[in-house]
Amino acid sequence: MNTLDHTTLHRTAKYFMDSAKATSHEQAMAFLEKFGLTIYVNGETARTVNGQIALLSLVNLARRTFLAGIEIVGPLDIQVVTNLATEATLADAVAALGGRVVEAASTSWPTALIGNVDPDRSVPPAWRLSWSGWRGGVIPASDPTCSCDPKAIPLAAALAAAVCVAEVFAFHAGDHAMAGKRSAGLSLWQPGEDWLQPDASEPAILYLPSRLWLIGLGNLGQAYAWLLACLPYADDADVELVLQDFDTLAPSNDSTSVLTSRGVIGRRKARWVSEWLERRGFRTFIEERRFGAWTHRHQNEPAVGLCGVDNAPTRAALEEAGFALVIESGLGAGVHGFRGFSLHTFPASRSAAEIWSSSAGRHLPADLAGQPAYVDLKAKGADQCGLAQLASRTVGAPFVGVMAGTLVIAELLRRLHGGRAFEVISLSALNLDDVEAISGDPHVYAHGYASAVSPSSG
């Protein structure tokens, strides 16, 4: 039996421990081990790039959260046409991500539908993934207005998958009465606007960012890498990425980080993410030290930094490195806030130092010593130091990281296509209709771009 500590803890199981829904770590894991998902996919949609992005993103996120299993029904002996997978067929790609292709699926799990498919059976709550233009999300299966637009930006399909997993988790956890009964989604072109309404102002993607510096390669940093691999680069070799992280992959990363699997535990994060990206044609450079006030980019290095580090001193130093543009995202913490996520960009009306230097130490872990699961751990011999380390780790879920990641990459795409620049965007996966957004000063994006292929082939 593996010893439970902060490096092995399943970060979503911690939700049940911290909320007292579970009286022990074992019971928290038992909850997740009862959660499953059935996915039905239409063959026509499965042949499109966006259909494959939606399916692979859905399987990738769901298998980390729903430990009973992920079953896929549909014709998947199809050639892979997305850069997300290096396998030859979609069936092999799904299996590599932890999904199981079946002919007859479970009749007791919630259902996700991709494309024009109507399973001939009674289902618990069922969602249709929908994407069009710069918009993605889910609608109840009974709603006929679903769209799987092959010309939508790929981020919209990935967003639909993340929203679906968020809704399925809320249903399984029983913490939102409307899960399975509502539509949920987001416009990446105009956050806060009705994502179900067509938007004639959404442009086709012509240009893509080509030179980026990724700071932190955990939940958020790996989400950025996954989403960059979704983008339709005409030539992936045009993309130069600096990957900065000093840490190694731990078992707990498998529960939150989309490029992590049990087979790579113990490897350096930057080296593994570099390998994953280079298999897909990107050019990468590794920086294996902490980011801080001592970090300074050379004039020939990427001028755009994408930060995914949950550390106030690091974030406070983001503008000191010499980037022309920084896009930072952060995830909420705790039982009530872990589904929240936000975006900041710099330069802005407030500096990074103003925002985070005064917040250091403000988000101390809650006193969880009295919660039943922690009392149980102490009774089983856990020492005070180990309990404190467990308590200090936040609840985490991979679908929140990918939602935040779509905002970050979309910020780059909007600026490349003359759209609004945002200084702050904040929202929660529990209510995607409630978006707080502050526009920033528009600037011409002059930090390196590459051409996109035409979306006409879908």
Defining key terms:
8-stranded mixed beta sheet, 458 residues, Rossmann fold, alpha/beta, 17 strands, 14 helices, 7-stranded mixed beta sheet, 2 domains
Give the name of the CATH architecture of the largest domain. 3-Layer(aba) Sandwich
**What value does the average pLDDT take?**
93
Overall helicity: 25-40%
Number of contiguous helices: 14
Q: In total, how many beta strands? A: 17
Reconstruct the topology from this structure:
Layout: H1 13-18, H2 25-32, E1 36-41, H3 43-46, H4 49-65, E2 69-73, H5 90-96, E3 100-101, E4 111-114, E5 126-132, E6 135-140, H6 154-173, E7 184-187, E8 207-209, E9 211-215, H7 219-230, E10 240-244, H8 269-278, E11 283-287, E12 304-307, H9 312-316, E13 325-331, H10 334-337, E14 340-346, H11 352-356, H12 372-379, H13 384-392, H14 398-416, E15 422-428, E16 431-439, E17 449-451
